[in-house]
Design goal:
The chain contains eight helices and eight strands, in the order βαβαβαβαββαβαβαα. The protein is α/β, with parallel strands linked by helices. Strands 1-8-7-6-5-4-3-2 form an eight-stranded parallel β-sheet. It binds D-xylitol-5-phosphate and zinc ion. Zinc ion (ZN) binds next to strand 2. D-xylitol-5-phosphate (DX5) binds next to strand 2, strand 8 and helix 7.
Length: about 220
């Protein structure tokens, strides 16, 4: 089967929050096709990060699509706020959305792209029924909540399983991985079937700069 190109989604969680606009512009200049924005509420995950007002600020400084990863409880309550702020895609966790089908329909009704994420301990089967309703599946390769964690290799068979589920039904949904992605781990996820790579530390903490880090990641999966 013909494969779509590999895409890199820089996670601005690892950027300098005092210079977010710079970080976004540098990533855009390096040719990425989206930014990944991690939203954490201190309940679904232990950490607290950012909310709609930061998405709104980012929306003013970049034309890049903003892919917003909601690591929050009761995501339905915030769909309008993130849609109004200018998010392009809303990714919700299967584990955090009790009425996942309704949540996904509500996101779509706001005209946004839809995504569903699953934690390392959640089996691929949990998204079987929602797969044809989403534009993107995010397989977490760390437990969500923090940047800079170590890649969990036990998630590789699940990436493969989700890839098979997508291909078997000829769905157009993207398969993304998130957490601990760097030039050494990225090729393993791509080999398993991932096509969108979220990377935070590997891009924004690179000593030689954002563009060089993105090139390195691209070269690793070429
Ligand atoms: C983790 C977040 C990730 C994180 C990735 O909860 O969802 O997007 O920023 O960061 P790295 O690439 O440093 O693992
Ligand atoms: Zn994320």
């Amino acid at each position: 089967m013909e494969r779509e190109p590999i895409r890199i989604a820089p996670s601005i969680l690892a950027a300098d929050f005092a210079r977010l606009g710079d970080a976004a512009n540098q990533a855009a200049a390096a040719g990425v096709d989206r930014l990944h924005v991690d939203v954490m509420d201190g309940h679904f995950v232990p950490n607290i990060s950012i909310g709609p007002i930061v998405v709104q600020s980012l929306r003013r400084v970049t034309r890049l699509p903003l892919e917003t990863h909601l690591m929050i409880e009761q995501p339905d309550r915030y769909i309008d706020a993130f849609a109004d702020a200018g998010a392009t895609t809303l990714i919700v966790h299967q584990e955090g959305a009790i009425h996942l089908h309704r949540t996904i329909q509500q996101i779509r009704a706001r005209g946004l792209r839809t995504g569903v994420a699953i934690n390392p301990a959640t089996p691929a089967a949990m998204i079987q029924e929602i797969l044809c309703d989403v534009d993107l599946v995010l397989v977490m390769t760390v437990n969500p909540g923090f940047g800079g964690q170590e890649f969990i290799a036990d998630t590789l068979p699940k990436i493969r399983a989700v890839r098979e589920m997508i291909d078997r039904r000829s769905l157009h949904c993207e398969l993304e991985v998130d957490g601990g992605i760097d030039p050494s781990t990225a090729p393993r996820t791509v080999e398993a079937g991932a096509r969108v790579l979220v990377a935070g530390s590997a891009i924004f903490h690179a000593a030689d700069g954002i563009a060089a880090a993105i090139d390195r990641l691209r070269a690793a999966v070429r």
